[in-house]
UniProtKB/TrEMBL annotation:
This is histidinol-phosphate transaminase. One of its GO terms (molecular function) is pyridoxal phosphate binding. It catalyses: L-histidinol phosphate + 2-oxoglutarate = 3-(imidazol-4-yl)-2-oxopropyl phosphate + L-glutamate. Its cofactor is pyridoxal 5'-phosphate. Keywords: Amino-acid biosynthesis, Aminotransferase, Histidine biosynthesis, Pyridoxal phosphate, Transferase. Residues 28-352 form the Aminotransferase class I/classII large domain. CDD domains: AAT_like. It comes from Campylobacter jejuni. It holds the Pfam family Aminotran_1_2. Belongs to the class-II pyridoxal-phosphate-dependent aminotransferase family. Histidinol-phosphate aminotransferase subfamily. Transmembrane segments: none annotated.
Length: 358
């Protein structure tokens, strides 16, 4: 039997090889290609994981209704109760659930582009067509044009990554809120994977706006990418619908413990975010010494760059155990670099200098 026609015709999400896992020695490796945190998670995470591993409960299924974690998330996101929150084994898993729950085969889905491409691939993979609304040449979003586009195309569902990946641009929060309020018949999925780096959110709308779903992850600022855990913030009625299909056993107990421990040490996350902001500013200043153009509006832990001989630069850095992301398949001529600590970015700059002075 052949795969269904949706899969046969699908343009897949272009992940990149994770060559780093093939290394036997991780000394001096600088992983700047997947936008993970470049430091370990809070010591509290290690402490709580060790406690669980010694508890003798690895043979149990995970907690399918972790009230303590839900309450911690409701406090962190300033929601009235945990009824506005649900946990998933990554925000990608949440997106898959949302597609299954809220979209029909004939739904008109708009994606603000260029952006993180996994949602598009998943929607297309189940036979749902998507249309793009493109950012301008400076990677900014024209909200007036978008509003007209939504009406003209009779859009049912909109996916927007804010801050956007891979540009790092954080859109005008007031305009985004107004767009959501003024279009109650359109379901808005706002992917806030990088919220911690810009602290701008539409989370205050979920109590009264049933047409809004927010997804977030612990993979970025919280440094828990290996655990694969994320969550949804939305109106209580949407959470109830989501839970009709959600597999509550799919969030491992180790992931839940790690997330809860990380939420008990938000100060640690905030300090890392401050480090990133400092090193990002220095990095954007220092790369001007090279023939490199940057999307300087970024408010995240990454920066989009355009440079001559880009593939040669990528290969040279890889030879020096530094990994960055080629984004030529989505934005021709651009690559993306994760921002780490000041020390890490200085090391990267040294290697860039070596390349350009050869």
């Amino acid at each position: 039997m052949l795969p269904n026609k949706n899969i046969q015709n699908l343009k897949p999400y272009m992940s990149i090889p994770h060559d780093i896992w093939n290394f036997k020695n991780y000394d001096n490796v600088l992983k700047l290609d997947w936008n993970e945190a470049t430091i370990n998670p809070s010591p509290k995470v290690f402490e709580h994981i060790y406690q669980f591993l010694n508890s003798g409960k690895l043979n149990w299924y995970p907690n399918t209704k972790n009230i303590e974690l839900l309450r911690a998330l409701s406090l962190y996101t300033k929601q009235d109760s945990e009824d506005y929150i649900e946990i998933f084994g990554s925000s990608d898993a949440a997106h898959e659930n949302i597609i299954d729950v809220f979209l029909e085969k004939n739904s008109i889905v708009c994606i603000i582009s260029p952006t993180y491409d996994n949602f598009r691939a998943r929607a297309n993979g189940v036979g749902i067509k998507t249309i793009n609304f493109m950012l301008d040449k400076n990677f900014e979003l024209d909200f007036d044009e978008l509003n007209n586009f939504l009406k003209q195309k009779k859009v049912d569902f909109l996916y927007i990554c804010n801050p956007n990946n891979p540009t790092g641009v954080c859109y005008d929060n007031n305009k985004l809120e107004q767009l959501i309020i003024n279009n109650p018949k359109i379901m808005f999925l706002v992917d806030e994977a990088y919220y911690e780096f810009c602290k701008k959110s539409v989370q205050n709308l979920v109590k009264n706006c049933k047409n809004l779903i927010i997804t977030r992850t612990f993979s970025k600022a919280f440094a828990l990418a290996s655990f694969r855990i994320g969550y949804v913030i939305s109106h209580v009625d949407n959470i109830k619908s989501i839970n009709k299909l959600r597999n509550s056993k799919n969030i491992s107990m180790l992931s839940q413990i790690a997330a809860l421990a990380a939420l008990k040490d938000v100060e640690y996350v905030d300090k890392f975010v401050e480090q990133v902001a400092t090193s990002r500013k220095l990095f954007l200043k220092d790369i001007k010494a090279f023939d490199i153009r940057a999307c300087e509006q970024t408010e995240t832990n990454f920066v989009l760059l355009s440079m001559k001989n880009m593939q040669e630069v990528i290969n040279y850095l890889k030879q020096n155990k530094i990994f960055i992301r080629n984004y030529n398949h989505i934005i021709p001529g651009y690559c993306r670099i994760t921002i780490g600590t000041v020390e890490q970015m200085r090391y990267l700059l040294d290697k860039l200098k070596e390349f350009y002075e050869r």
